[in-house]
Structure formats: C-alpha cells, structure tokens
Write a structure and sequence with these properties.
The structure is a single chain. The protein contains four helices and three strands. The protein is α+β, with helices and mostly antiparallel strands. It has a single domain, classed as Alpha-Beta Plaits (2-Layer Sandwich). The protein has a three-stranded antiparallel sheet, covered by helices on one side. The longest helix is centred in the first third of the chain and has 16 residues. The chain is elongated and about 65 Å long.
C-alpha cells in the first residue's frame, strides 16, 4: 500500500513539473468600451499559445498570459493590431478599425 501511495505522489510531482511555463505580456492599447474588451478577448483567445486574456478598459491595458514556446510578444501585438486596435507602438490596422462597431471608434473610454 505504501508503494502505491508513493507511486501516486511521484506521478503527481512529475505531472506538476510538466506544466508549461507561462510569460505575461502587458500591452497598452486603444480600447474604449466593453465591446472592445470582448473583441480582443475573443480574438486573442483563439491564437495558439495564449492561455488567458484580460482587458482593463479604464487603463487601456491588455494583459496576456502565453506560452513562449508557442507564440511571441510580437505575434500577440500583431494580432491585436489586426483586430483594429493599437498595440503599444504598433498602429491599428485601418481596414480592421473600419469593421469595428461605432462605439469602439471613439477616442475616449465610455
């Protein structure tokens, strides 16, 4: 019985060690409303390697937890840009910006 408990504990430790390491990226963006928040979360969540996304509308900061072996900060910023939003120093894609709802095209948060 002790042997079985030891095997389970060893397996648990081994599995815990197999968890992928995550990095966190903070991106200053041009989000202004909850629709922007939903668009970014939905658009980034489908990208390979991204574990979770949070968008803080008042501070205009997007926080992304990602696997560095699956994606890069540059790829994440490019995806945000292609969704129609600024991503740090990358300007938004004009064609994608035109497809956004009217509320997302304002200059100030609401």
């Amino acid at each position: 019985m002790r042997w079985l408990v030891g095997v389970w504990m060893g397996l648990g430790v081994w599995l815990y060690g197999q968890q992928p390491k995550l990095d966190t990226l903070y991106v200053k963006s041009s989000v202004v409303c909850q629709m922007c928040r939903r668009t970014i979360i939905k658009g980034l969540s489908t990208q390979k390697g991204i574990r979770w996304v949070e968008v803080d509308v008042p501070t205009k900061v997007i926080t992304v937890a990602y696997r560095p072996d699956k994606t890069t900060p540059a790829a994440i910023r490019e995806r945000i840009r292609r969704l129609g939003y600024d991503a740090d120093s990358l300007p938004r894609d004009p064609a994608a910006f035109e497809q956004l709802p009217t509320c997302c095209k304002r200059d100030t948060p609401h």
